[in-house]
Amino acid sequence: xxxxxxxxxxxxxxxxxxxxxxxxxxxxxxxxxxxxxxxxxxxxxxxxxxxxxxxxxxxxxxxxxxxxxxxxxxxxxxxxxxxxxxxxxxxxxxxxxxxxxxxxxxxxxxxxxxxxxxxxxxxxxxxxxxxxxxxxxxxxxxxxxxxxxxxxxxxxxxxxxxxxxxxxxxxxxxxxxxxxxxxxxxxxxxxxxxxxxxxxxxxxxxx
Length: 207
What we know:
The chain is mostly helical. It contains eight helices and two strands; from the N terminus they run ααβαααβααα. It is about 65% helix and about 0% strand. Strands 1-2 form a two-stranded antiparallel ribbon. Helix 3 (about 70-80) crosses helix 7, helix 5 packs antiparallel against helix 6 and helix 6 runs antiparallel to helix 7 (about 165-190). The chain is globular, with a radius of gyration of 17 Å.
C-alpha cells in the first residue's frame, strides 16, 4: 500500500486538467467586456486563484504514505470533485438578476474560502483517499473538511445562477458523495497520520 517511490498519477493527470481550467478562466477574464458585472469578474479572479494554487500544490506535493485503492472510493472522489461542472448543463436557466447576483456572490465566497483552505492544506492535497501529513491550521483548526464545505457553497451558488431545476439534484448528489468521501478519508488518516485521531477529537466533521 505504501507509495514512496511510485509515479504520482494524481499529479500527472490533474496538473494538466487544472492548468487547462486556469487558462480558460484567464481567457475569460481577458475577454470580458466593460459591461461585465463586478461580481462576475470577482468570480473569475477567485477561480484563477483556485486553479493556480491547485497546480502549484500538486506539483510540489510529496509522495503519499498510503493510498486507499478501492475503486468505488476513487469513483466517489472523482465524481464529487468534478460533478459541479454538470450544474450549468442541467440547470433550468432563466434566473432573475437579483437571484443571479446572490448565486454569484455565493460562488465568489465559496471559491475564495476554498483558496484559503488550500493554502493551509498545502501539499496534503489529494482527490482520492491518501495519507500525507496533518493539516490543522487556518479553517482546519475548527473543522476537518473545510474545503468540501466551501466548495459546496460555490456549488449552491452555481445552481442558483443556472436557474435550479435538475441542478439541485446534482448539488444533493455532491453533498452525499462528499460526506462519504470525508468518512473514508478519515478512516485512512486515523490509521496512517500521527496525531490525526487526537485532532479529530477536538474538531467537527461530517460524522
